[in-house]
């Protein structure tokens, strides 16, 4: 143990760890909040009483009365130099809104990039942004960005969610090009932000400009990349007097209509159906700090289709959240990673367990739970206390079962009426510190189980923002019976705790982390955890060169060493050594890098699918994994990203037979072609091939298969080749900065071919099995998502969506190994088609009152 500890420490000090990923279209991560040593820049806002016309001209005399913010400082690619082509920004305000006027001087008209896109997307374009820390807590902020083409983007900044572009506010902006300059004029109503009731206020303030021609980012208040955090490096906005938070009350009603055609509907049901829906989203500012958001009878039928995959692992697949209500303004609820919003409205818990009598078949079995409503209350007081409350209700869900002889139908409950609730308290402290308390609760009606999870978090940093310690402790509690059973839940009480310490600022950073998840810890009723019963410790280090040298803009080296045990019983699982590197070349902005990992022999206790864990494991030979990547300059009309990698396994001679060596290959190809500022094509190809992979036989053993009967009660493993190909083609045409059309096609195919089988015994022993059933498998998924979107007024939108979906799973002799056979089979299989129209109209109380 002493030798292992010394090794961990040595690797942490000598190794190098990757920096946080920073979106190329966004400022750095906002996780830190300690004061920066350099003096804060200040800008005074000027109160006005006359109207400002939003046209991107700045011809009102009022603009000339305001002080100017200029002399921006470069952050990327070369930190430190002052801008050569000045930016001039002024701020005005009245009783209703803040007005921002910005002039971006440039060298020539054609050096101003203006590619159009959908909202919240910042492609090959110049842009200007203003960032506001309205409570001046150096932790949380708002961002409002407009491109040279007039496309708007907005984001929230917080320690929990980082930079969150899913947040949307109702505000307006206009841009115009004047010779070698371009101008941005913005109006941000007070209803879009939250602030205190103090008579005189001082806000955190930042401006950002991107000159895409040279891929340069400039900030008004210098943002040093070696300093941890973003919001803590902003300047200050002064001169704000007599601001009164308005009554923030808005209603966004919607109506939608669907035409759905499903050629696979069961006999006796209609294959073409229509439906009409109506509901509304409500926002109400309870006071100057807190807002209630509610969605009544929500309709999420137009969100992008999930990327379905063949899952051979023992863990569930985590899907991306595409429902706007669950992605915007959720930074408080994401504290501690205890909230996985896809649980709300998810597949019914009894979906796969519908009991059938003789001569019965399932006619209808809804795969989603329809929500009745969902409500959020969130905000932060002037003392830095963040409070969040979330609640959602879902109705009963029933499957319909029909007797094939009599035609009689009956309903089977698959999901009881349920209530989902989250409560969060988050206190911001000085020096980038905070403490938080989170509670999640799921209550289900009827004779089934309820779940509750409570967690406490903390982070403390020193005054110089150079070192920090963080951690958490979480307790999960479940009570009741398994759904549809009299058997009690067996994981009633569990816990998790984490603790970490490290150096967080400077060119060289490092840290140590330790985590335990008990064998009964289970947050998955409203959160997501892929596997509990773990003890994990890791050490990492990172060395970053931020300033250009030689022929490169920057350079990052990073490494990590980790060790994992089973919690109960305490048994070794795995250990890994990781190293990586990336850099960007100065002249052509070519990005290259690699990731390397070596894992000694490890024991996989989860793959056998037996509980409790400990007796059985799959032995994984020592392996080395490497992947390299290259990304070309995205300013060019044609840009390409590629990657390729391989995993090489050692021979496993301890088995009773000569098992071929395991290998894994993978590659990706991601070209993008921009025809002009309106039309862009994108394509992605991901390919992987796993040879001689060892794993649990997908689908398990069945008592209905006579070839399975001799192996009942045993753990059957298979040696298999798995080939997976994913193709995604996208075309986007943006008519104006408020009207766009996107078309996305995705085809996924995965083929599993078994070579032989073994029976797994205790202590990882495997013995060849004379198992004769064909378990080959081919899974295909095909989706089309076509979306026309028009923002015809601030906060108001028309969406027309066509969705086409189909999937097939071919088993045993029907499995097809050839890619084009699978593609043709997928195309020719009957698909579900849906065409929908949805109209949302934003109604603001203050606007209606002024008109009245």
Automatic annotation (TrEMBL):
Transmembrane annotation, as ranges: none
InterPro entries attached to this UniProt entry: Carb-bd_dom_fam9 (IPR010502), DUF5916 (IPR045670)
UniProt keyword annotations, A-Z: Signal
Domain called Carbohydrate-binding: residue spans: 54-209
UniProt keyword Signal present: yes
Domain of life: Bacteria
Any one Pfam family match given in the protein's UniProt record, by short name: CBM9_1
Signal peptide boundaries: 1-23
Residues covered by the DUF5916 domain: 245-850
Protein name per its UniProtKB record: Carbohydrate binding family 9 domain-containing protein
């Amino acid at each position: 143990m002493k030798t292992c500890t010394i090794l961990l420490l040595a690797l942490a000090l000598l190794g190098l760890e990757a920096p946080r990923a920073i979106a190329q279209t966004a400022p750095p991560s906002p996780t830190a909040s300690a004061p920066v040593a350099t003096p804060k820049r200040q800008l005074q806002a000027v109160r006005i009483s006359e109207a400002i016309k939003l046209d991107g001209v700045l011809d009102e005399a009022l603009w000339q009365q305001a002080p100017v913010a200029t002399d921006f400082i470069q952050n990327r690619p070369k930190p430190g130099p002052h801008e050569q082509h000045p930016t001039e920004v002024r701020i005005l305000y009245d009783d209703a809104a803040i007005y921002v006027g910005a002039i971006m001087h440039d060298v020539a008209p054609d050096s101003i990039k203006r590619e159009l896109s959908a909202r919240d997307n910042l492609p090959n374009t110049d842009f200007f942004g203003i960032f506001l820390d309205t409570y001046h807590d150096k932790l949380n902020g708002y961002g409002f960005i407009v491109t040279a083409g007039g496309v708007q983007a907005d984001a929230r900044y917080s320690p929990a969610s980082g930079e969150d572009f899913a947040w949307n506010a109702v505000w307006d902006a206009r841009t115009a090009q004047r010779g070698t300059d371009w101008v941005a004029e913005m109006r941000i109503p007070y209803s879009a932000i939250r602030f205190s009731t103090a008579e005189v206020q001082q806000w955190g303030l930042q401006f950002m400009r991107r000159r895409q021609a040279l891929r340069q980012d400039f900030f008004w208040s210098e943002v040093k990349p070696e300093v941890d955090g973003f919001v803590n490096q902003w300047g200050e906005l002064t001169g704000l007097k007599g601001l009164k938070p308005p009554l923030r009350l808005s209603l966004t009603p919607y109506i939608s209509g669907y035409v759905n055609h499903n050629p696979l509907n069961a006999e006796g049901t209609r294959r073409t159906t229509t439906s009409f829906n109506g509901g509304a989203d409500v926002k109400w500012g309870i006071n100057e700090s807190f807002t209630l958001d509610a969605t009544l009878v929500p309709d999420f039928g137009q969100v992008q289709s999930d990327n379905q995959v063949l899952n051979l692992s023992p863990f569930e697949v985590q899907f991306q959240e595409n429902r706007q209500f669950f992605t915007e303004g959720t930074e408080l609820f994401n504290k501690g990673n205890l909230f996985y919003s896809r649980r709300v409205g998810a597949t019914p818990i009894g979906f796969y367990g519908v009991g059938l009598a003789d001569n019965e078949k399932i006619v209808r079995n809804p795969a989603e739970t329809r929500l009745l409503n969902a409500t959020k209350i969130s905000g932060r007081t002037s003392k830095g206390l963040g409070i969040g409350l979330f609640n959602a209700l879902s109705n009963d869900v029933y499957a319909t079962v029909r007797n094939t002889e009599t035609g009689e139908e009956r309903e089977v409950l698959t999901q009881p009426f349920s209530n989902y609730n989250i409560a969060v308290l988050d206190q911001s402290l000085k020096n980038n510190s905070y403490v938080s308390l989170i509670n999640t609760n799921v209550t289900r009606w009827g004779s089934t189980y309820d779940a509750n999870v409570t967690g406490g978090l903390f982070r403390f940093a020193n005054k110089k923002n150079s070192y920090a310690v963080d951690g958490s402790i979480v307790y999960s509690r479940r009570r009741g019976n398994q759904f549809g059973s009299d058997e009690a839940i067996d994981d009633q009480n569990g816990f998790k705790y984490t603790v970490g310490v490290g150096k967080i600022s400077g060119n060289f950073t490092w840290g140590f982390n330790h985590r335990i998840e008990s064998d009964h810890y289970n947050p998955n009723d409203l959160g997501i955890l892929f596997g509990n019963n773990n003890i994990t410790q890791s050490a990492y280090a990172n060395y970053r060169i931020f300033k250009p040298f030689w022929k490169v803009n920057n350079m990052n080296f990073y490494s990590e060493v980790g060790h994992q045990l089973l919690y109960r019983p305490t048994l070794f699982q795995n250990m890994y050594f990781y190293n990586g590197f990336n850099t960007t070349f100065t002249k052509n902005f070519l990005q290259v890098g690699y990731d390397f990992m070596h894992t000694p022999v490890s024991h996989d206790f989860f793959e056998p699918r037996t509980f409790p864990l400990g007796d059985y494991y799959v032995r994984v030979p020592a392996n080395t994994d490497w992947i390299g990547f290259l990304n070309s300059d995205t300013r060019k009309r044609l840009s390409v990203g590629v990657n390729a990698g391989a995993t090489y396994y050692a021979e496993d001679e301890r088995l009773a037979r000569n098992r071929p060596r395991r290998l894994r290959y993978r590659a990706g190809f991601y070209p993008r072609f921009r025809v002009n500022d309106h039309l862009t094509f994108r394509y992605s190809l991901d390919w992987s091939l796993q040879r001689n992979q060892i794993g649990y036989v997908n689908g398990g053993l069945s008592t209905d298969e006579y070839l399975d009967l001799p192996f009942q009660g045993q753990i059957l493993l298979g040696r298999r080749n798995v080939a997976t190909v994913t193709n995604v083609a996208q075309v986007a045409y943006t008519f104006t900065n408020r009207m766009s059309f996107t078309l996305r096609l995705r085809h996924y195919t995965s083929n599993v071919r078994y070579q032989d089988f073994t029976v797994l015994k205790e202590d990882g022993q495997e013995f060849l099995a004379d198992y004769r059933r064909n378990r080959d498998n081919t899974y295909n998924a095909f989706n089309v998502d076509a979306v026309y979107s028009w923002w015809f007024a601030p906060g108001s939108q028309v969406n027309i969506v066509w969705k086409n979906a189909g999937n097939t799973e071919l088993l045993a002799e029907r499995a097809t190994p050839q890619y084009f056979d699978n593609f043709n089979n997928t195309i020719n299989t009957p698909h579900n088609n849906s065409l929908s129209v949805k109209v949302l109209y934003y109604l603001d109380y203050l606007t209606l009152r002024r008109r009245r």
